[in-house]
Amino acid sequence: MKNKKLIKDVKQRFKSHFNTEPLLVYSPGRINLIGEHTDYNEGFVFPAAINKGIALAIQKSDAPTSKVIALNMEEAHEFGLDALQPLSDGGWRNYILGVIAEVQKLGKNPGNFNSVFAGNIPGGAGMSSSAALENSFVYGLNELFNLGLTKEEMILVSQKAEHNFVGVNCGIMDQYASMFGITDSALLLDCRTVESKAYTIDFKDYELMLINTNVKHDLSESAYNDRRAVCENISKLLNVAALRDATKADLDGLKSEISEADYQKALYVIQENNRVQRFAEAIEENDVDTLGDLLFQSHNGLSKQYQVSCAELDFLVEKAKESPDVAGARMMGGGFGGCTINLVLKSAFKTFKKEVSEQYKNEFGTACSVYKVKLSQGTHVIKS
Ligand code: GAF
């Protein structure tokens, strides 16, 4: 569904249900060019906000409770704002409750509200529908109740909501990209200083293709938290604040104390951080071959060393390698399903799409989905 229709639908439902004009907020999902599982290691990432996101219609309410309608699911939740706790099997509700609870922890007290939201980010695709949802609510509440939060504070609220109400100890990449995205640009983000440099993205004869495996394997959340714990444990053993500060030589000195599997994971993080820097240089030099190589290397590390890939993602990357029209490809996001990101020759986009879709169907018996995305502006109010 196009964004225009998404926003129109959300607004219409709000008006027909609550009989008043809402504030409209749009918050995008994100892609990530390179730099996976480096954010919580205080390293570098290279994400961009995209033209798929969450639209939120929200307004103050005099009622003693607040109400949220999730239009995609045709579900609703009504709740008081006191003593908020995560709900077991709360699904989308916990992202919103988490945001409110984290705002309250900052000593800010939004009042009751009514809201309707809907999204067009494919679920489980690794394109950060969660961060978009969190950001849309914290942004909407901040505007509506004049809470005085900066964007930097808002993304921390969103991240903590995910830690404390959803149970995923995520880094800051997704919330940052969704909040600070810039049209036609990707952001080289230093996750330690939380400062970024915008790069206008134009791959000339090439363009980005996302291929969604349409699978999300169950262990993704627990495995994510496990990976983070491994990295933090190794940082402690090395006596550094985060793996961002470690070198391969440091790690080699620890070989007798950690398992080979954990050694490889930490080594991946150190190498991936370095790849992000080289990717930025290759963008400046318009060097598509290097960009492509770095994508393939990143995937290899994610699959073999960090062990967060799966058969479906590996298959798609193999097919990309076999094609003379694809400069590079890798899995994107947390892993265990979701999308690959591919750098594909513009003139061969259609043929590669057809080829890879057929091959995927033959191999797994289910369809993959292919998307083109535009790099877009971050979370903002829509003027009606
Ligand atoms: C998920 C997380 F939310 C991010 O913080 C990041 O760690 C990513 O996985 C992996 O790079 O999207």
Characterization of the model:
The protein is an alpha+beta fold. The protein has 2 domains: 3-201 and 376-381, Ribosomal Protein S5, domain 2 (2-Layer Sandwich); 206-372, Alpha-Beta Plaits. It is 43% helix and 23% strand. The chain is built from 11 helices and 13 strands. It has helices spanning 3-18, 92-105, 129-144, 151-166, 173-180, 220-238, 248-252, 260-284, 288-305, 311-322, 349-364; strands spanning 23-32, 44-45, 47-60, 66-70, 75-79, 113-119, 185-190, 195-200, 206-216, 326-331, 337-345, 369-371, 380-382. α4 (151-166) runs antiparallel to α5 and α10 (311-322) runs antiparallel to α11. The two termini are 19 Å apart. 47% of the residues are buried. This is Galactokinase. It is an enzyme of class 2 (transferase). One of its GO terms (biological process) is galactose metabolic process.
Named CATH topology of the largest domain: Ribosomal Protein S5, domain 2
- Number of beta-strand segments: 13
Tell me the span between the first and last alpha carbons.
19 Å
CATH architecture verdict of the largest domain: 2-Layer Sandwich
**H/E topology pattern:** HEEEEEHEHHHEEEHHHHHEEHEE
Range of strand content: 15-25%
**Poorly predicted runs:** none
Reading side by side through the largest sheet, how are the strands ordered? 5-4-6-3-1-13
Indicate the radius of gyration in whole angstroms: 21 Å
As a percent range, the share of helical residues equals 40-55%
CATH top level assignment of the largest domain:
Alpha Beta
Main sheet record? 6 strands, mixed
Q: What coarse outline follows from CA principal-axis ratios?
A: globular
Mean pLDDT: 97
Helix and strand composition category: alpha+beta
Family: Belongs to the GHMP kinase family. GalK subfamily.
Domain GHMP kinase N-terminal: 94-181
GO molecular function, one term: ATP binding
Domain Galactokinase N-terminal: 12-60
